[in-house]
Amino acid sequence: MYSVTIIPMLNDNYSYLIHDTESQQTAVVDPTLAQPVLDVLAANGWQLNFIFNTHHHGDHVGGNLELKQKTGCKVVAAQADQYRIPGYDLGVNDNEVVMLGNLAAHIIATPGHTSGHIVYYFADHGLLFCGDTLFVMGCGRLFEGTAEQLWHSLQKLKRLPEATRIYCAHEYTQANGRFALSAEPDNLALQQRILAVKQARENGQPTVPSTIAQELATNPFFREDSPALQKAIGLSGKSALDVFTELRKLKDRF
Ligand code: ZN
Ligand code: FE
Questions:
Q1: Is the pTM value of this prediction over 0.85?
Q2: At a CB cut-off of 8 Å and minimum separation 6, what does 80 contact?
Q3: Spacing, Cα 197 to ligand 1 middle (Å)
């Protein structure tokens, strides 16, 4: 058994605590700040064993040093990012596995938002912690990579089982939904989802986790091969990569 605890941070960040009930091991994914994590640990009587970082941006590693100092946890991050992850201890690479007690996290390299971005995929449990690569109805901005790199990265995530639950690092869902609707106004699943999301936010609920199935139905960056979407942005018949590249540009200007 395991549990995932969503910890909202600052305006729109999410950090996640993953706890393995059997081994009592706990990891936090992308701690923006230390204190909210320490509070959840204390409330549950858990020790922190690991920080799993997806990439080096400040809003994902801000709590690293304080958590390490106060809990003695180990910091896991992409080996490629070893010089820019505060408190870096254990380097991981594409296709490697890191264990949290009995839970296996498969590392998938997803360059694009940053060059060293990785995601943590718990295949046996259908959980994906994807940082700033994939968002609900959106995807990360290109800071250190090309559209082609990010597109290839997203293709890897697109092929995961449809029931996989997606824990992304930001609550950008409503803004993403507005852009998605502009790119595909007649998508019924999208229209319905936007209403559900509005309701959730009005009730103060997070819109994570999503699923791969939900993203396949509504995320324009997973739907670059949809004829209706291609038509709406004037790129009928273009390659998936061309459509994706244009979508990413349109979103930057939206
Ligand atoms: Zn970022
Ligand atoms: Fe971020």
A1: yes
A2: 93, 115, 116
A3: 23
